[in-house]
Write a structure and sequence with these properties.
Blueprint lengths: L2 H18 L5 H7 L4 H18 L3 H7 L2 H17 L7 H28 L6 H21 L4 H4 L2 H20 L25 H20 L5 H23 L6 H23 L5 H27 L4
């Protein structure tokens, strides 16, 4: 647990706070810009598709370029794309911006996870993975439940400015991280390494369902209401044990892939929940039912699956 490890955790927390303070507000902001429901839905789906689309490039980018540079440049790109929300007013601009934001966000997420694992001593990487995942969940908590409330008391421009300040602070902390040089090993351009762990498809689906339900409920309720805070705080508390379960399904060289798979499931599920919450009138009941099904699924299907398929204790 070195100073560099704490720096990467702090940078991740700041980065996630900046991102998740904006994303829950985007459906409302799209409507205020005159976009209809279908256009808003397509815009958020483009964010998700871009996240998934760049996934197979993660390992290649981390192998060809210095990992710290990949992290800082993708963080910078994400901050620029989110900052552009102040200036845009056309539907095509929103869709292009969402696609570019999703791609840069996914690259930054994977790069941060890779660095957090690489700079941690091998005998402490399990604890390091859990702590790094918790830092991201803490950022989600602060962004969704705290900063999003500024949108009601101030305006969207003010929220964007605060988000940009957090992005800048994240990059300043990232600049102080020392990452040892590693010679390229010739990773193929497209592969699942550091993106998706096939063995973890079941728990990933389960987590995606849970976050889908939470996203739907937060679309109906103010995220800083007591129920919204309880849901996000509860999820923050279980991120560390979830990370441990995903890592149990991975071999020693697949820790990054396991952690990225978990983060992918969290992000995709939450955003899809926000999207669908705008389309279903009875999203309160549907969201609650989805969460209950995900909990039942964990106890009856996912946990036994993990016990059968795990490759480490």
């Amino acid at each position: 647990m070195t100073l560099d490890f704490w720096r990467v955790c702090i940078a991740n927390c700041l980065f996630c706070t900046a991102v998740w303070s904006i994303i829950p507000i985007l459906p409302t902001q799209c409507f205020l810009m005159g976009m209809n429901q279908d256009e808003m839905t397509v815009s958020l789906l483009l964010f998700v598709l871009a996240m998934l689309g760049v996934g197979p490039l993660h390992a290649f980018l981390g192998d060809v370029f210095r990992r710290k540079n990949v992290l800082m440049l993708s963080t910078l790109a994400t901050s620029i794309f989110f900052g552009c929300w102040i200036f845009i007013n056309e539907v095509w601009q929103v869709m292009l911006l969402m696609f570019m934001s999703g791609a840069s966000f996914a690259i930054a997420t994977a790069a941060g996870i890779t660095i957090s694992v690489d700079i941690t001593q091998s005998n402490r990487r399990g604890a390091g993975n859990r702590m790094y995942a918790f830092s991201g969940a803490l950022g989600l908590l602060m962004g969704v439940c705290c900063l999003s409330s500024i949108y009601l008391t101030a305006n969207f421009k003010t929220l964007i400015i605060i988000s940009l300040i957090l992005f800048i602070l994240s990059m300043i902390v990232e600049a102080g991280i020392y990452v040892a040089f590693r010679a390229p090993v010739g990773v193929g351009t497209f592969n699942l390494d550091r993106f998706f762990l096939p063995m973890a498809w079941m728990p990933a689906l389960n987590v995606c369902m849970l976050m889908f339900g939470i996203g739907m409920l937060l679309n109906l309720l103010p995220p800083y209401s007591w129920l919204g805070v309880v849901m996000i705080v509860g999820f923050t508390m279980i991120v560390a044990p979830l990370t441990k379960m995903f890592i149990k399904l991975s071999h020693h060289c697949q820790r990054c892939t396991a952690n990225t798979t978990l983060q992918l499931a969290i992000q995709v599920g939450f955003i899809l929940g926000l999207v669908e919450g705008e389309r279903i009138d009875s999203n309160l009941q549907f969201g609650v039912i989805t969460i209950l099904i995900s909990l039942i699924m964990f106890g009856t299907v996912t946990w036994p699956y993990i016990q059968r398929k795990r490759v480490r204790g």
